[in-house]
Design goal:
The longest helix is centred in the first third of the chain and has 19 residues. The chain is of the alpha/beta class and 250 residues long. It has an eight-stranded mixed barrel, surrounded by five helices. A hairpin with a 5-residue loop joins strand 1 and strand 2. It contains eleven helices and nine strands. Bound molecules: guanosine-5'-monophosphate and manganese (II) ion (MN). The site of manganese (II) ion (MN) has 4 residues, from loops.
Length: 250
């Protein structure tokens, strides 16, 4: 099935939507953040997962447009959910291709200002290991984001793409341990313990991804992980469903 021609029109026709998955504080189980995840509602094939269409978009130069849409949606919802004293962080995934284009910082700045999103609400999640030549450039960009109050999260940590330098060398505020590591974790898990020690020494928040059971939650809590995300707490939901969930959170 060749999805590329369809993908080219999908953004323009509003077939790509932002869904949001909760992240909770492991001790209180309250929602403290949500991750924006792209969903493609294809008119014939139904819901198409991002792991199918994001690589396609990256390969064919469509990621810039989808990325800009996700940033705009993330900021719009961040503004809506952070009126008054409410605080919920909103994380948006940013691919390496977006990081090395010059407009990313402008897009983020414009959205944050226009919508008056409070500081420390928006977080960008980055994943790929970058070629050494680009590290300095990306580092400068991420430092500028930090100056805007935007958080920097290292995603899928422990999959082989990620390295300790990403925690130590980049202006990281959060690290998300990949679900493969979380679901295989033991109560004394040396990898997770190591990440927590390294992260906490630098004031970095640790998130466990893919928590599906109470047993997994107990293990990561015991290892000192701060936040958890996964089906135990909720799947990615539409804006209206997440809005309702947040309204009912004490
Ligand atoms: O790469 P990243 O960590 O941003 O991807 C998050 C993806 O993981 C989403 O597509 C989401 O649907 C999926 N996901 C989130 N929580 C769980 C979980 O508890 N179990 C499984 N199997 N998948 C999950
Ligand atoms: Mn992510």
């Amino acid at each position: 099935m060749d999805l590329l021609p369809d993908l080219r029109v999908a953004v323009a026709r509003g077939q790509i939507e932002a869904y949001f998955q909760p992240m909770v504080d492991v001790s209180t189980r309250r929602i403290v953040a949500v991750e924006a995840l792209a969903r493609w509602k294809h008119p014939e094939h139904g819901l198409i997962a991002p792991n199918v269409f994001i690589p396609l978009a990256e390969e064919h130069g469509l990621i810039g447009e989808i990325g800009a849409f996700m940033i705009a949606e993330g900021c719009r919802c961040a503004a809506a959910w952070n009126g008054g004293s409410a605080r919920v962080q909103v994380s948006v995934n940013v691919s390496a291709a977006q990081l090395t284009t010059s407009s990313l910082l402008d897009q983020i700045t414009d959205n944050l200002r226009r919508l008056s999103v409070p500081d420390d609400v928006l977080v960008v999640e980055i994943t790929e290991s970058l070629p050494v030549v680009e590290i300095a450039e990306v580092n400068a960009l991420l430092n500028e984001m930090r100056l805007l109050g935007v958080g920097v999260s290292v995603d899928d940590y422990g999959t082989g793409h990620s390295t300790a330098e990403q925690l130590a060398g980049l202006p990281t505020t959060e690290v998300k341990i990949d679900m493969s590591r979380v679901q295989a974790a033991t109560p004394n898990d040396p990898f997770i313990r190591g990440v927590v020690t390294l992260a906490h020494a630098r004031g970095i928040t640790v998130v466990a991804e893919g928590v599906e059971t109470e047993a997994q939650l107990d293990i990561v809590r015991g290892l000192g992980v701060d936040r958890a995300q996964g089906y135990l707490f909720g799947r990615p939901e539409s804006e209206s469903d997440i809005s309702r969930l947040l309204k009912n959170t004490p």
